[in-house]
Amino acid sequence: MTTTVGPGTAPGIHTATCTVTDAGLKGEERTDISEQSSTDVLSAADIPWNLVVWNDPVNLMSYVSYVFQSYFGYSEAKSNKLMLEVHKKGRSIVAYGGKEQVEQHAVAMHGYGLWATVEKASSSGDGRGRKGGARG
Fold first, then answer.
1. Cα(18)–Cα(29) distance, integer angstroms
2. Residues 50 and 121 sit within 8 Å (Cβ to Cβ)
3. Which DSSP letter does residue 2 get?
4. How many whole angstroms separate alpha carbon 57 and alpha carbon 59?
5. DSSP 7-32
6. What are phi and psi of 118, to 5 degrees?
7. In order of start, what are the domains of the chain with their CATH numbers?
8. Element holding 101 (H helix, E strand)
9. In 3D, which of 95, 84, 86 has the Cα closest to residue 51?
10. Alpha carbons 90 and 83: distance in angstroms, whole number
């Protein structure tokens, strides 16, 4: 029986092919362990993304706050804070996380009639842009 274990089975571990018989190992078995480079290219799913809700001339402020409470499960205080940011600054980052997750949130916001977009998170250190933001 021949078993091949190669790149992709575990990060940073590469194992050579070996032949296993009832009598034991035949041939060479080699394990190379290398560190992942910090310069590896991150995929879109690895980069944090923001969900931005924009001010619009249609929706009432109370409705925007209601959407944040009902969809994201935010408290009334947090929902009102985000809604006021949308109203006064024209936009607010209301959730963050992986690209696919944030895109789903944007589609949901469109379903509620809100204007929302997805953008790459900046590294501004404001606590946003890390994985694990709001989930709906």
1. 6
2. yes
3. E
4. 6
5. TTSBTTEEE--EEEETTEEES---EE
6. -115, 135
7. 2-33 (no CATH), 49-120 (3.30.1390.10)
8. helix 99-111
9. 95
10. 10
Contact call for residues 127 and 66 (beta carbons, < 8 A) = no
Percentage of the chain exceeding pLDDT 90 = 54
Place of tokens 């009902």: 70
| Strand partners of residue 116 | 53
Nearest-5° Cα angle at 85, 79 to 88: 135
For the chain, the average pLDDT equals 75
Looking at 16-111, which runs of residues are DSSP E strands? 18-21, 24-26, 31-33, 49-54, 91-97
Region at 88 (left for phi over 0; alpha for psi -120 to 50; beta for the rest): alpha
- pLDDT tens across 88-127, in order? 999 999 999 999 999 999 999 999 999 999 999 986 545 4
> Cα 39 to chain center, whole Å?
20
Report how far apart, in Å, the C-alpha atoms of 95 and of each of 20, 56, 79 are: 51, 18, 12
d(CA 54, CA 110) in angstroms, rounded, equals 11
